[in-house]
Design brief:
Length: 235
């Protein structure tokens, strides 16, 4: 604007005044045009921008609040995970102790079972010769014993009760086992081992089983297999 005025000052005096009048009219028309048309649009734009800014600020506030809530939830989750991890660690530790105790208990029970079984066998060695003679007419030669019978070089079969005997003038083998509580499976296992032994010691076998107790069904099954059962109370 100032450049225009400077240029007008250089005009002749008779032209300068009319030109200034024209310039003033032009300026007023331009300003009036801006006020009537563009100003309202500008005001609306500014209003919408302000509203958008408020909505953005509100959205940002809600986002920050949600972020805080998520952070708190994550903190609680991490704490819960730590508690679960600690509980799992304690459970695993207790489980290791239980397994250790269980193994120790099994070993102890197994030791007691073997001790009771050996006790029953030891009593059998003393009492069976007379019982075999009395009940079955079988004469034991020497002593009954517990041993590993060699069936081949470096190969053995464990026999709980065995020994040489004579029956009806013929030599035979007494083969037996002692079980604290005799079950049908024990009979099947005993038959299997006795049959294996017979492949290498080819003599007639007198098969006997000694026990503290067993069921009538097991007794009948043993009789059907040709096996004589002796009970500890007979000793």
């Amino acid at each position: 604007m100032f450049k225009y005025l400077e240029a007008i000052e250089e005009l002749p005096q008779d032209i300068k005044k009319p030109f200034l009048k024209v310039l003033e009219i032009f300026r007023e028309e331009v300003l009036d045009t801006v006020k009537r048309s563009d100003f309202e649009d500008l005001k609306n734009i500014v209003s919408r921008l302000a509203q958008a800014q408020e909505e953005l600020a509100e959205a940002q506030k809600r986002t920050e609040q949600r972020v805080e809530e998520l952070a708190e939830a994550q903190k609680r989750t991490e704490q819960k995970v730590e508690e679960l991890a600690e509980a799992q660690r304690r459970t695993e530790e207790e489980l290791r102790w239980l397994i250790k105790d269980h193994k120790a208990l099994r070993a102890e029970v197994g030791g007691l079972t073997h001790a009771v079984g050996y006790r029953l066998e030891d009593e059998s060695f003393k009492a069976l010769p007379a019982l075999l003679k009395q009940d079955m007419g079988i004469e034991v030669i020497g002593k009954l014993k517990r041993d590993f019978v060699e069936i081949a070089k470096g190969r053995y079969i464990e026999v709980n009760i065995w020994g040489e005997a004579r029956y009806d003038g013929k030599e035979c083998l007494v083969v037996g086992e002692a079980k604290t509580q005799l079950k049908r499976k024990d009979i099947d296992d005993f038959i299997k081992r006795s049959d294996e032994l017979k492949k290498y010691l080819i003599k007639e076998q007198v098969r006997i089983l000694v026990t503290y107790q067993t069921s009538p069904q097991v007794q009948e099954y043993a009789r059907a297999k040709g096996i004589r059962i002796f009970f500890s109370y007979e000793f």
